[in-house]
Design brief:
With about 120 residues, the protein is of the alpha+beta class. It contains three helices and six strands. A hairpin with a 2-residue loop joins β2 and β3. The longest helix is centred in the N-terminal third of the chain and has 17 residues.
Length: about 120
């Protein structure tokens, strides 16, 4: 199992992407999040190359905010895009994904657990 800890507040798909000239592009917030995640993932991923097989991914999103209306599913895609090319070649390799949110925590943080499956 590969474990990653990213000491950042997860961004939602609505924050990470914007529509420009009928194309979906990374927003300024999305670019910054992706750059920062990439740095943390490169530091922590010990394999020589990205994983090649089928994957199971579990993500724990921790938020300082007590706001209960945080949609956990909106936070998957920006994070998956940050992992592409580092942890795995393409997010189509993910066959099983699950997420959990914790609100009112001491810090904003993301914990990722990646397993190769048969």
């Amino acid at each position: 199992m590969h474990k990653f800890r990213i000491p950042l507040k997860a961004v939602s798909v609505n924050q990470a992407y914007s529509l420009a000239r009928k194309r979906l592009i990374l927003s300024k917030v999305g670019r910054k999040f992706k750059e920062d995640c990439t740095d943390f993932l490169k530091e922590q991923f010990t394999e020589e190359k990205p994983l090649k097989g089928k994957l199971r991914v579990r993500i724990l999103f921790q938020f300082r905010s007590f706001r209960k209306k945080i949609d956990v599913d909106n936070h998957f895609k920006p994070l998956q895009d940050s992992m592409t090319g580092i942890v795995f070649d393409d997010d189509s390799q993910i066959f099983k994904i699950s997420g959990e949110k914790q609100i009112g925590m001491n810090r904003n943080e993301i914990h990722i657990f990646v397993d190769e499956i048969d």
